[in-house]
Amino acid sequence: MESHDIAIADVEAPASPDEFDVDPPYEAADADLPDERFLDRELSWIAFNARVLELARDEAIPLLERARFLAIFASNLDEFFMVRIAGLKRRIAAGVAVPSASGLSPRDVLASSLAASQELMVEHAEAFHAEVLPALADEGIHLLHWSALSSSERDAISQQYRERIFPVLTPLAVDPAHPFPYISGLSLNLALLMRNPDTGKDHFARVKVPPIINRWMEAEPGRFVPIEEVIAAHLDLLFPGMEVIAKHVFRVTRNEDLEVEEDDAENLLKALEQELLRRKFGPPVRLEVEESIDPGVLELLVSELGIKEAEIVRLRGPLDLRSLNEIADLDRPKLQFDPFVPGTHTHLAEVETSSPADLFSALRKRDVLVHHPYDSFATSVQRFIEQAAADPRVLAIKQTLYRTSGDSPIIDALVDAARAGKQVLVIVEIKARFDEQANIRWARKLERAGCHVVYGLVGLKTHCKLSLVVRDEPDGLRRYAHLGTGNYNPKTARLYEDFGLLTSDPDIANDLSDLFNNLSGFAKRFSYRKLMVAPQGLRDGLIERIDREISNHRAGLPSGIRIKSNSIVDETVIDKLYEASRAGVNVDLVVRGICTLRPGVAGLSENIRVRSILGRFLEHSRVYWFAGAGQPEAWIGSADLMHRNLDRRVEVLVRIPSAEHIAQLGDLLETSASDDTKSWHLSADGIWNLHDGIDLQTTLTDQARSRRSRS
After folding, report:
1. Out of 172-181, 590-599, 603-612, 690-699, least confident range
2. Mind listing the pLDDT tens digit for each residue in 64-97?
3. Triad 190, 195, 201: Cα angle to 5°
4. Which residues are annotated as a binding site for Mg(2+)?
5. Is residue 504 pLDDT above 80, yes or no?
6. Residues of each domain in the chain carrying CATH 3.30.870.10
7. Where do the annotations place ATP binding (predicted)?
C-alpha cells in the first residue's frame, strides 16, 4: 500500500478511546475462526457511497433524480470526512494503535480510506461532467460558465449581483495588518492573487461565497451559472484598482464531531453549547481545490491550513455538488420520480369518516403496523400524538425525540398538551449528531411550555423511538403506544422507509412505563416482557434467538434468520451468524450501508446472503425475524448491529404481537433478499455487484397507490 504523510500533530488527543466511536478490541469465543473474516468498516462505508454514485449514473432513473444522487453522494462524503476520517486522525494522535477487527492499524485504515475516497471523488466529478451535465443540456437545463453567457445574460446577472450579492460579500486581504482568515468548514471560497499596479506587490485575498444565497443563478429560463463565477467576474467592484493575477475556488472540511465530557459537566446543555462553538474551529481534514489551481496559491493554503498532500483533493470544478439539489428541485415533473402521496393505513382508513379517524378506538380493536412512506405518517403517528394532546381524557404523554423537523407538528402538539395541563415528559437527545443546535432549541421551547424535559442518561445517547399515552377511560386507565424504527420527523417520513407499531398491548405498555421511569428517574429495571433494550440486554437477546435457530435446525425443525439493518458491524453478533451458517441455518441480511461480514465463504458463511437496496427512498427500518420452529417472531426498532447502538445508546426492539404482522415482515424481508429483486449482492471479497430484477420500492408504491384508489 502506498504510504501517505498523514497530518496528525494538529489534533488534540481526547480523554477516552470511546469518544472515537471505534470498534473495541475483540476476542472471538471460537479460536478456530479465521482472522480475516471481517471486512474493513471504513472501506465498506466507501463502497456504500459508491452504490449511491451508481444510482446517479443509472440512465433508467429520472434525470433530475440522478442529479440529486450526485448531491447525496457529496453530502455523504462530507460527513465521512468530518466524522470518520477526523476520528481516525484523533486515534492516531492519541496513540491508539489497536488494529480494527479487519486487522488494519488506524494508520493503514486512514491511508486506504483517503486513497479510496479520493478516487471516488474523481469518479463523482467525472460522472457529473461526462454523463449528467450533457443529459441536462439535452433537456434544456444548461449549467454554464460565465464565459458561455451572452452579453444580455451577463447584463441581467450583473444587475442581480449588484442588488443581491455584492452587499453581502466581505473581502478579506492577507498582509501584515490582516492575518490569514479563518476558513469555516464546508464553505465555498475564492482564493485570489492580486497585484497592486502602483507598487508591483502581489497580495492574497479570500472571498467567502455566501451560503444563504442559492448557488445557481438563472440568467434566462433553463440557463444557470454558479455564483462563485459571478463573484469572480466582478472582482473589480470588491478590489477596485487591483489587478487580478489568479482566482481559484477551494473548500475545507473540518473535524466537526463533538467531544463532551458528560461525567464532568455540571450542566450538559451548557457543556454542549460550548462544544458547538468549538466545533466551528475543528482542525482541517480535507482541502478540495480545482485542478487548475496556481501552485503558489495552493502552497499558501496548505501552509496556512496545515494540510498534508494526502488530504488535498484536486477536482474538475465546480466543487461542492451538494448544490445540485437546487437543480433537482426544478419544476420539471417528467424528469423526476412520479409524485407519490401516501394514503392512510387500511386499518385506520376504515374508521375515517368526514373527520379524522379516532386512533384510540382503532387501537382498542387491533394493533396497526405502519410502513412509511407507503403509509401516511401524518394520518398515523402524527395524528396519534395530536389526538392525544387534544383529547381531554388523556392524562399523560411520554415521548422520546432524537431528530425532528424545523416546523415540527409533534413539538407543537406536545406544547399544546402541556399547556392544557397534561403531564408531558420528553426525552430530548441533545447530542444527536449535527442536530444538536436544533434539539437545544426544541428542549427550551418544551421547557417553557411546562413539559418535563430530560436529556437522557449520562454516557448514553437515547436513540429509541417511543411514545406512550395514558388515557382515562370508562373501564379504567388504558395506555397506548407507538414504537418505531424512524424519527418523529414528518419531512423525513416522506423520504425514509420505516416501520412503526401502534398498539394498546398491555405488556408493551407496561414495558414502556418501566423504561420511561428508567430514563427520567433512578429506576434500574433491565428485564422486559416484549422489549429488548440496549445497552443491557439487546445483544444478548439477539444472540439467544440465533442460538435457538441453530438448535431448531439441528433438531430438524423450521429455522431461518432474516435481518434488515442500516449497518452490520458488531463482531459478536457476526460471529454468532457465522456459527448459524456453519450449522446449516439460512441467513438473509438486507443492509443499506456498512457490512463487515463476509458472506459466501466456504466452511464459514456459505449459508449467508447479503443484499443492499438503494433507491428513491432511504431504507431505514431495522427488522429482526426468526423462523422459531414454525412459530416465527419478529422485532422492529431503532437498533443497528453496531457497537454504538448495542453498547453506548438506549435502543429498543419491540416484539411484534400479531401473527399477521410477523408474516408481513417476514415476507418483505424474503422478497428483499430474493434473487428476483433488484439489489446489490455482497461477495466474500467485499465487492458489491448490482443484480437486476424487480424494483421493490416501485412495487410497494404501486401497491400503495392501488390501495388508495380502492379506499
Report:
1. 172-181
2. 999 999 999 999 999 999 989 988 888 888 887 7
3. 125
4. 403, 433
5. yes
6. 346-526, 532-710
7. 76, 496, 592, 620
**pTM (2 decimals)?**
0.91
Query: What pLDDT is recorded for position 184?
Result: 87
Question: Of 635, 630, 705, which Cα lies nearest the Cα of 669?
Answer: 635
Residues 6+ apart with CB under 8 A from 540: none
Q: Which CATH number fits domain 346-526: 3.30.1300.10, 3.40.1190.10, 3.40.190.10, 3.30.870.10?
A: 3.30.870.10
**What residue numbers does the annotated binding site for ATP cover?**
76, 496, 592, 620
Q: In the 8-state DSSP scheme, what is residue 492?
A: G
How do strand 223-226 and strand 142-143 relate by DSSP bridges?
A: parallel
Backbone angles phi, psi at 611, to 5 degrees: -125, 155
- Quick one: how far is CA 640 from the chain centroid? 13
Q: Within a 10 A sphere around the Cβ of 298, how many other Cβ atoms?
A: 19
Q: Which three cell numbers stand for residue 528?
A: 422486559
Whether residue 463 lies in the annotated active site: yes
Q: Is the pLDDT of residue 408 over 90?
A: no
- C-alpha distances (whole Å) from 381 to each of 240, 466, 492 are 58, 11, 13
* Domain 532-710, architecture per CATH: 2-Layer Sandwich (3.30)
- Active-site hit among 248, 371, 463, 553: 463
In the CATH hierarchy, which fold is given to the domain comprising 146-258+284-328? polyphosphate kinase like (3.30.1840)
What region does 466 belong to: left with phi over 0, alpha with psi -120 to 50, or beta?
A: beta
Residue with cell 438506549: 650
Q: Which residues contact 594 (CB under 8 A, 6 or more apart)?
A: 41, 44, 45, 48, 566, 567, 568, 569, 642
Measured between alpha carbons, how far is 426 from 401 in angstroms, rounded to an integer? 7
> What mean pLDDT value characterizes the chain?
89
* Closest to 338 in 3D by CA, of 616, 594, 711: 616
* DSSP letter, residue 127: H
User: Count of H helices and E strands in the chain?
Assistant: 22, 27
Nearest by Cα to 418 from 451, 461, 465: 451
Give the Å distances, CA to CA, from 234 to 144, 215, 435, 503: 17, 16, 37, 62
Cα dist from 404 to 83, 309, 493, whole Å: 21, 39, 10
Pairwise CA distance, residues 93 & 207, whole Å? 32
- How many angstroms separate the CA atoms of 504 and 468, rounded? 10
Over residues 329-338, the mean pLDDT reads 97
pLDDT digits (tens, 9 = 90+) for 266-308: 465 565 555 555 555 678 999 999 999 999 999 999 999 999 9
User: Identity (one letter) of the amino acid at 449?
Assistant: A
- Among positive and negative, which fits the CA dihedral 293, 294, 299, 305? negative
Residue extent(s) of CATH 3.30.1840.10 domains in the chain? 146-258+284-328
The total number of residues shown for the chain amounts to 711
Question: Do the beta carbons of residue 391 and residue 360 sit within 8 Å?
Answer: yes
Three-state helix/strand/coil letters over 589-624: EEECCCECECCCCCCCCCCEEEEECCCCCEECCEEE
Residue type, 269: L
464, 470, 471, 477 alpha-carbon torsion, rounded to 10°: 130
Three cell numbers at 459?
A: 454516557
Give the residue carrying C-alpha cell 480545482.
Answer: 290
Residue spans of beta strands (DSSP E) within 77-201: 142-143, 172-174, 188-195
The answer to whether the beta carbons of residues 428 and 464 sit under 8 Å apart is no
Instruction: Give the strand order in the sheet containing 202-208.
Output: 172-174, 202-208, 188-195, 243-254, 284-290, 312-315
